[in-house]
Amino acid sequence: MPSARKPGGALPKKSRPARAAAAKKAPKRRATPAAARASARAAAETATARLAAERAAAPAPSPSGTDSRADRPAGRTIVIEQYASGIGCQVRQKLTLRALGLRRLRQRVVRPDNAAVRGMVHAIPHLVRIVEGGHAA
Predict the structure, then answer these.
(1) What CA–CA distance (Å, rounded) separates 11 from 94?
(2) pLDDT per residue as tens, the chain (137 positions)
(3) pTM score of the predicted model
(4) Could you tell me which CATH class the domain 73-131 is placed in?
(5) Which of 1, 4, 15, 117 is the most exposed place for a label (fewest CB within 10 A)?
(6) Which of 52, 124, 47, 42 is nearest to 81 (CA)?
(7) Residue 100 host element (H or E)
(8) CA distance 82 to 129
(9) Which among 75, 77, 87, 63 is positioned nearest to 108, based on CA atoms?
(10) How high is the pLDDT of residue 64?
(11) Residue 9: strand, helix, or coil
(12) What Å distances lie between residue 81 and 47, 89, 129, CA to CA?
């Protein structure tokens, strides 16, 4: 492929109109620090206003003070424990561990007892087990 440089090593000369256009181009001006702070402050105020509006539209918390749906899955649940390390396993198996919410050995998580979760446990039986009558710690 031919080089853009001339054989002598010099760059090709620009034509007169190209040089004139390059000289007329004004350098881009950067925003001053004060202007940058002002735009950041305006963005923060907009985000704060949006967050306040979302909170106002959100339903009131339950009388007990905690949302029971966030604490535990509805319906039947199973406790899954990781008893072997994911080191040296295939990436797909590591991703399955992460999808179940398992990060370290002997960690237990409570998940809904459905076909999807059972399928994930079945895919990595050498790493996890279902604890009978166990409590997630």
Answers:
(1) 53
(2) 566 665 666 666 666 666 666 666 666 666 677 777 777 777 778 878 777 777 777 676 666 555 555 555 568 999 999 999 999 999 999 999 999 999 999 999 999 999 999 999 999 999 999 998 777 76
(3) 0.47
(4) alpha beta
(5) 1
(6) 124
(7) helix 91-100
(8) 7
(9) 77
(10) 57
(11) coil
(12) 40, 17, 5
Domain ranges of the chain: 73-131
Candidates 120, 130, 86; CA nearest to 104 is 86
List 82's β-bridge partners, or say none: 128
Q: What CA–CA distance (Å, rounded) separates 135 from 20?
A: 78
Residue 50 in tokens: 């949006």
SS3 at position 30? coil
11 φ/ψ angles, rounded to the nearest 5 degrees:
-75, 150
pLDDT at 55: 77
